[in-house]
Design goal:
Blueprint (H helix, E strand, L loop, with lengths): L16 H23 L2 H7 L4 H17 L1 H11 L2 H18 L10 H34 L1 H30 L3 H6 L1 H17 L9 H11 L9 H7 L7 H15 L4 H10 L8 H26 L6 H7 L1 H5 L4 H29 L5 H25 L4 H36 L2
Helix pairs in contact: 1-5, 1-6, 1-7, 1-9, 2-13, 3-6, 3-13, 3-18, 4-6, 4-18, 5-6, 5-9, 6-7, 6-18, 7-14, 7-17, 10-11, 12-18, 12-19, 14-17, 15-17, 15-19
């Protein structure tokens, strides 16, 4: 692949591109401390409120899916309005408010399960509202430092929050013997995330200053990879919003959706850990934290590899996912822990590197839309996989017999994407970009 094009090192406020990337990472760290702290014990909470495995799968998988699918609406809306900051701040606020309110659900009697399901869904809606806008904002400074590394560093900080949140939850549960105080404790990092985000907006109101014209031209060529690539860069950029999303992008989205189908989801995994008496309630967040630690390391490593070899690094995801259902729903704790490690590695690679590849395949005027379409595939796969895992909870062998062939198809589609990306990259090198 050609070397990444670098943008301006600082903006008018004197903030370097790396400083902006890290600042966004710290915001994600704080808000993921909230979101993943809650997700680590969502299964046990729903179980205590009366849910069975299928209900847990439908609620947690449905909320995850809705959080992805709604980006199909929020992504184009972000592109049209260009109000990236408003969407980002609103989405972060929904998460920061909904999670602490889960502390009330054990005291609501028969309506507790319904309220908890609603708040879990609202938290994921917050993710849907903010993600396209936040990712577009981040893509600008990341283009100046190398998208693979930029997104990987952001994801690593994000995963630090995803690791720390469950530890905080575990500590509170161990100290109090109850779930509700853990949710209440997550109000503080949510407030910190909002304050820091407002600070970034004040200092860097327009992060697009970090993306140079040469980078815009390169992404416009990716959008028109099946059309002529010798048009002037400014014309290509102006026409990008009216072009269809590239076939390569659609194939990539489909392969990611198929991979998501085999991921089971930690809601079902956490329910299994307590339902099968494999660990105590306080230890469930620790298992989730271990998975997030693996995800952080995988995100950082895969980002660096992506800058060197491109999308080929993603070929490891279907291979990892293929073993997840059988291991994570095993009655053996060591097998479950290995499965959670594989699950975490796949999550880390997907959640960091896929965003870099989407940014390389789609020009900035349509990135919000592209992230929304991409999320539709990912959400559909997530919901179908979580529902199937809940339905076949007692028969992981049959579950694996269904998901493994799906991962083979995902691998084949992804191989096609990698070859097409390689051809586009070689074309850019020959054209001197």
């Amino acid at each position: 692949m050609s070397a990444p094009v670098r943008g301006p090192s600082t903006n008018a406020a004197g903030w370097s591109a790396w400083r902006v990337v890290v600042a966004f990472g710290v915001v994600s760290l704080a808000v993921d401390l909230v979101a993943d702290g809650a997700r680590s014990v969502a299964g046990p909470l729903l179980g205590q409120l009366g849910a069975n495995a299928l209900t847990v799968g439908l609620i947690t998988g449905g909320s995850e899916a809705l959080g992805f699918i709604l980006r199909l609406i929020s992504g184009p809306a972000v592109d049209r309005s260009k109000r990236y900051w408003g969407w980002a701040i609103g989405g972060y606020a929904l998460t920061a408010l909904s999670v602490p309110l889960l502390a009330l659900t054990p005291f609501l009697g028969t309506v507790g399960l319904g309220v908890a399901a609603s708040l879990i869904i609202i938290e994921r809606i917050g993710k849907a509202v903010r993600s396209p806008a936040k990712t577009v904002l981040l893509s600008f400074p990341a283009s100046a430092v190398g998208r693979g590394r930029g997104f990987a560093v952001h994801k690593t900080l994000d995963q630090v929050g995803a690791f720390s949140g469950p530890l905080l939850v575990a500590a509170v549960i161990a100290a109090t013997g109850a779930l509700w105080p853990a949710f209440a404790a997550l109000a503080l990092p949510g407030l910190v995330a909002l304050v820091l985000l407002l600070c970034i907006r004040h200092r860097v109101p327009d992060p697009s200053v970090y993306e140079p014209a040469a980078e815009t031209a390169a992404t416009a060529r990716a959008v028109g990879e099946e059309a002529s690539v010798d048009a002037a860069a400014t014309v290509a950029h102006a026409e990008a919003p009216r072009r269809r999303l590239p076939v390569t992008f659609v194939l990539f989205s489909a392969s990611t959706g198929l991979s998501a189908f085999g991921m089971v989801g930690f809601g079902v995994i956490s329910f299994h850990l307590t339902n099968a008496n494999l660990v105590t309630l306080a230890a469930v967040p620790l298992v989730y934290a271990a998975g997030m630690l693996v995800a952080a390391l995988a995100a950082l490593a895969s980002g660096r590899v992506y800058d060197a070899i491109g999308g080929a690094v993603l070929l490891s995801v279907p291979v990892l996912v293929a073993a997840v259902p059988l291991l994570t729903l095993s009655r053996s704790l060591p097998a479950v822990l290995v499965g959670v490690g594989l699950w975490g590695a796949a999550v880390g690679i997907q959640d960091s590197t896929v965003k870099a590849l989407v940014a390389d395949l789609v020009a900035s005027p349509r990135r919000g839309t592209a992230y929304g379409v991409f999320a539709l595939f990912q959400g559909a796969g997530t919901f179908a996989g979580a529902a199937l895992a809940g339905a076949l909870y007692s028969n992981p062998v049959m579950l694996s017999a269904i998901t493994i062939p799906v991962q083979v198809v995902a691998f084949v589609l992804l191989s096609v994407v990698v070859r097409r990306q390689h051809r586009v990259s070689r074309g850019e090198e020959r054209s001197g970009t």
